[in-house]
Amino acid sequence: MIEIWLNPACSKCRTAQAELDAAGVEYAVRRYLDEPPTVAELEDVLARLGLEPWDIARTADAAELGVALPTTDETGRRAWLELMVDEPRLIQRPILTATDGTTVVGRDPESLARVISAG
């Protein structure tokens, strides 16, 4: 089983969902704009990815949202997490997590293939 965090308006998300369908794997959709992740869920995903919050941020969207971005260091880390919960549009998409813990930002075929094979 795979969980996919997606925005249906996003072409990369639609591509990822089509790849999951084509592979015939079972998956659950989370529309993360409607149901934002908690700080704990973001922490878990980031630990699985081996990344920091600013590494999965859509920083270009910050200007549109009128938000200032925190510093990209340990002192700003908690502020990033809270900002992403409050403004989930800032989270890169799609994020896919397989039952075995394999987690990817599925914006390229290689990442999608990796999570599909784990699913």
From TrEMBL:
Highest taxon in the source lineage: Bacteria
Pfam entry (one): ArsC
Gene3D superfamilies xrefs: Glutaredoxin
InterPro entries: Arsenate_reductase-like (IPR006660), Thioredoxin-like_sf (IPR036249)
PANTHER family membership: ARSENATE REDUCTASE
Entry's family note: Belongs to the ArsC family.
Protein name stated in the entry: Arsenate reductase family protein
